[in-house]
Each structure stands twice: as C-alpha cells, then as structure tokens.
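Escalated from tier 1: flavin-adenine dinucleotide holo job.
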Amino acid sequence: MNRRQFIMTSLGTGLGLSLGITLYPVVTATKASQLTAAEMVFDAFLPALLMGALPADNQLAQQQLLATRKAAIEFLPFLPLTQQQQLSQLFLLLEQELTRLALTGNWLSLNELPVQTRLGLLSAWRDSYLALLQQAYCGLRELLFAAYYGQPPHWAALNYQAVEFNRYG
Amino acid sequence: MDDPIRQGLARGWKHIDAATLSKDEQYEADIVIVGTGAGGGLAAEILTQAGFSVIMLEHGALNSSSDFKQQERWAYPHLYQDGAGRKTKDQGIAILQGRTVGGSTTVNWTTSIRTPKNTLGYWREHFGLDFSGDNSLEPFFDLASGRLNISQWHMSPNLNNLALKNGCEKLGWQYTIIHRNVNGCANLGLCGMGCPINAKQSMLVTTIPTALDGGATLISRISARNFEWQGDKIQALHAVPVDEHYQPRQGVNITVKARHYIAAGGAINTPALLLRSKVPNPSGRLGKHTYLHPSLISGALFAEPINGHAGAPQSVYSDQFVWPESDNMGFKLEVPPVHPVLMATKLIGMAEQHAHLMKQFNNLQVMIALLRDGFAEQAQGGTVELDSNGEPQLDYPLTDYLFAGAREALLAMAELQFAAGAKAVMPIHADGQLYKSWPEAKAAIMALPMAIYRTTLASAHVMGGCNMAMDASKGVVDMQGRHHQLKNLSVFDGSTLPTSLGANPQLTIYGLVWRNSTLLANWLHGNQ
Ligand SMILES: Cc1cc2nc3c(=O)[nH]c(=O)nc-3n(C[C@H](O)[C@H](O)[C@H](O)COP(=O)(O)OP(=O)(O)OC[C@H]3O[C@@H](n4cnc5c(N)ncnc54)[C@H](O)[C@@H]3O)c2cc1C
Ligand code: SF4
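Tier 2 regenerated the structure:
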C-alpha cells in the first residue's frame, strides 16, 4: 500500500467512522484553484472543528459545511477594515502553512490532510507561546462556530427554537 | 403588531438615511447629537422638549420591531458594533456594544440599577464630584424610572436566573430581584436581538419617537468623523455616510453646524471621535481609563432543562462580592441570555468536546461575574487609540491583579452553581473541564493558569475615556458633562464615567444625562 492509499484507508475506517462522512466535501464542490485563501482555510478547518456536530448523513454534512463557509465569508465585511486586513494576511499565511504541511506529509493536496492533523494544528496554536497564533486560534474558532450555530438547520441537536416574529432572509 | 417607528415615519418624521445620499450636504440646528443610545436618545427628547431644534446622527440603521429578526446571525452584524466582533487590541476581551438607532439600549438586557453609593463616594473623593444634596442624582433616577417604566420584575425568574437565586439562598449570599425598563414584556428572552413587541423601553421606542414628533431630525447610517474647532469653540461637525456593511464611505461629505454639539457615541467611540478631532487634551486623559467590567463565565450542567434562552434574560443579581473588605477586585454576579451563537463562541474546546457540550445546550446554566475595574491602582482600564483607518482600538492590559479577581470570581460562581444543584460545573477557560463536585472544581480552578486567551473574558459595559472631574487636570469634562476646554461641546454618554460602576450602567447614564441636559437647556436659554 502506498502512503496515499494508507491514508485514505485510515480515513475510511477511523475518522470516516467517527464522523460518518467523507471528510472533505467542501473542497470537492469547487475547484481548489478557484477558492480564495479564506475559503481554503475555512474548508480545511471546518470539518475538524465541527466533528461531532455535523450530521451523519454525508450529503447533509456537505450542505452544512458549504452553508457555514458561506456564512463566515459573508460576515467578514462587517468587521473593521483593520481587522479584515489582518485576517486576510492570516488566511494567506495559514493557506501556505497548510499547503506546506500537506506537501511534507506527502498528501496529494490540501484536502487530504487528515482531520487529526488539522485539529492538531489548531491545538498547537491554542497552546502556542506566540500571541499571534493564539489569536488566530481564538479568532478562527469564534468565526466558524458563529457561522455554524447561527443557522437554524444546525440547531436540531440543540433542541433550540427561536420564536420567529419576522422571517430571516 | 404596532410599530411606533413605521407609524412615526408615516406621520412625516424627519429621517434621512445617509447611505442613500449621493452628493455633499450641509445641515444646521441648535443642537447636534452624535449617537442615539442611552445618552444621546434621552438628551434628544429633553432638548427638543426644551424648544431647541435637534439633529441626531447615528452610525447604525433605523431598525424597528418590523425589521428585527429573531436570529443572532441577523442581529449581530446589523445591531452591534463591528458585527459583535469588537475586541480589545490584543483580543483578550470580547466587547458587545450596540450600533443601531437607540444604541446599546436597543439590544441591552433591561437591568436597571441606580449608581451604587460606594461608587459615588469614590468619585467624590478622587474626582471632586459631589452628587449629594442639591446635586443628587436620585430625583433624576426617579424621573428616568417613570419615563422608562422601570420597576421590579414581577414574574418568576427564568430557570437560569432562578439558579442564581437558589444558590444564594443556600449559601446565605446577598441577592436582589432586578428592576427592568419594560412595559408589557412577554418574557420572550429576545432582548439582545431587539425587542420584537416594543416592550423594552429602549431609546428607540421612547425618547427618540418623542424627539422626532417634536420636530427633531434623525440622520441614520452616518459616521461622525471629526469636529472642526478653533480657540474654545467647535465650528462644524464633519461626517460621512456608511455602506451596507456600516463601513465609512468616501466621496460624500456631510457637514453639520450647530450652536452646541453633544458627543454621545458611547465609550470607545466618543473618545475616538475626539481623538480624530485632535481636541485640546491638557489632562492627557482623553481615551484613557476606559473600563469594561471584564466578565468571567461559568457553565453548569443541570439534570433538568434550564432553557436559558427563554424568559427575561436578567432578573436576579448578587452583590455578595462587589465590595470586598480586602483590596481584592470586587465582582457582581449575574446571568446572561443563552442563545446558540453566544454559547458556541464562548464554550470551550472544539470538535467532539464542543459538540457534546452544545448538545446539552438546554441543560446549561450560565453565570457571569463582572469585575469592578477602575478603583484600584492595578485596574486602571484601557486606552483608546486610533488605527490607520481612524477607527478605535482599545488597548486594555490584563494585570495580575485582574487575574487574581478572575480566579476568585470563577471560584464563587462554581460554588454557587453547585449550591443551586448543578451536576457539573465548567469554568470557561481553555484548560477548564466539567467538574463533578465543588471540592474538585475548587482544586482545579485554584490550579488554572490565569492568562490572556486561556481565560475567557467578555464585556457588555463599556465606560470611561472622557471622564468627568471637577478639576480640568483630572478629567475631560466637568460635572455637567461640559468639555473643560471647548465651550460648546458636551459629552452625554457612558464615556464620562470616572470608574466602572459595580452595577449595570444604563440607569446611571440616564440619571446623569437627564440632569445635564436640563442644565444645558437652562444655560443655552440663558445665553440666547
Ligand atoms: C448586549 C448588551 C446588554 C446590556 N445589558 C445591559 C443591562 O441589562 N443593563 C444596563 O444597565 N446596561 C446594559 N448594557 C449596557 C448599556 O446598554 C450601555 O452601557 C448604555 O446603553 C451606554 O449608553 P451610551 O449612550 O454610552 O452608548 P450606546 O447606548 O452604546 O449608544 C452609542 C450610539 O452611538 C453611535 N455612534 C458611535 N459613534 C458614532 C459616530 N462617530 N457617528 C455616529 N454614531 C455613532 C453608536 O452606533 C451607538 O448606537 C448592555 C449592553 C449590551 C451591548
Ligand atoms: S424579554 Fe422579550 S418581550 Fe421582554 S423586553 Fe426582552 S425581548 Fe421584549
């Protein structure tokens, strides 16, 4: 078995089982080359951050990931310009870091990075001595969780219902 | 559902949505007010009724009960500063402030508390501000209470608040049933997204409509950029429209001229406006000493559902620890409303751990402890600076003193939650876990590393940065909110507070602004 097959197998058994989904549905929906750095970064981290929250049904999980990425992207312009500038620099850096990781790990592309590697990266930032990385962890986590849990279709497991006086959208 | 805003607009209110303007404009009035929150909204009513022509400028949009969507994904970007993404400069503290007509009062949680005696005593001693006798704020608190229908909450607290009450009773700790500014509240728990039935007596549905009915003009979606001044007088205010994401837009310039100018953009934003204007600042205090009531959070799992999203968000508080005998940092205990985004972003962990906690959403009881900053030497708050776009950043250093208070606060909340019957308690801290008993939680919290990014801190109370003081060397404005150097400038908002309060700020601001608007009206009449 070559390295790639080995990884795919381990994904299929270990992570695939625990997640119940194919891991990288978002990236397959759009050509990677057409994605912005922000989208690449969101796609890389969303399946990891949302492990355990995404539904078992593969198609549903894909929909939720796409909707979350879209919500996160749509939220960014509401942030102050300076924060937006800092974030776009961060996304570029992270995209490079992820690509580097993928290359050194011999994965064919970014979307094959095992979910544990992605989680490991996030934990490393959280526990880093560098304020910048800790901020990246907190910021990304908050942005993506807000984008996910802001959406009524994702409240099923929470059993939360908002009284609706005026329809959203 | 009656919508007083839509009805008023149909009656012919003067409202200009600056975002729709395509060429430069100039306006003139007796008085221009920047910001329509607790301070600006109340001042607009009092000054209009005193016979002055008033123009109100508001960065946010004119949203009303017909516009409010009962979802956080709508409310945060449209009703909050920076889409509720405002943070201190090093991102150690998350800050909630309103940005819509009515300011933070449109989204606040309706807790109404008079300024604590200890706080007033501190101001007298350190800033020469004597609010006693003829200068007492009590008559103005009475007026504000009447105007905004402030009274003690008469329904039973929701289970989130009840846990606070029960825990206090068990431990023999002080607690108080909260007074709220509501009229016909249906106990919905949606205050933070704008009250859908206009029960909350925010500035949006009380004073601003009266001002508009009295002939005032409201310009929304406009950002006041700077005052033009010479000698001891302001000559004009310069502003620009904002775009659909509330970002200041170049290309259209709006000038407003008035006899008197009132800055009421709230703490952080009012100091920023004055910093951009480079107004005289001999005390060196402009933007400095900005306080946050930095707040710790503690989650608790209960066997039965708590449903912290339903019911009046705040109805009980405890002052057991606000004024400790020691020099330690005091803190007030309250609970927040619990909605999915607020919860998900504040809860610790990620992946399975986070998802597991979120699944117990309805069984989570959440407590907050608000640290009383601004009193001790080691808690002198933060400094507002301008970034390269002229927007404010609050540099708020987190001191060891503050972290010592934070640890005590986490301990008190855990003890209280167990006393109230929690099965497990989890301090909101990157290294925190669910602890099954008070001794276990106590030992763990004692060992938690108290540090930035690990200890979650948030604020919904921003105060100071243009502090009042009798002596011009100790403050930016005087006891009447009048700028010490610029004669036709007043600051009527939370930025004038010389310390944090140790209590939720809105009623203090109403009392001060009622007093100071009345004094200003008399002075302007006398000077005509
Ligand atoms: C979620 C939340 C819950 C809260 N709960 C409570 C509570 O239960 N009880 C309590 O006492 N307090 C509460 N508060 C705090 C309280 O509402 C505020 O302290 C109070 O409203 C502050 O009044 P203010 O006049 O200083 O500013 P704000 O009410 O914040 O109003 C300032 C307004 O000025 C506008 N503005 C700023 N700069 C400019 C500019 N340059 N140009 C044009 N417009 C500008 C802003 O957009 C904003 O609308 C809460 C706050 C929040 C955010
Ligand atoms: S609890 Fe509901 S009805 Fe009552 S004031 Fe808040 S939002 Fe309005």
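Chain B is about 25% helix and 20% strand.
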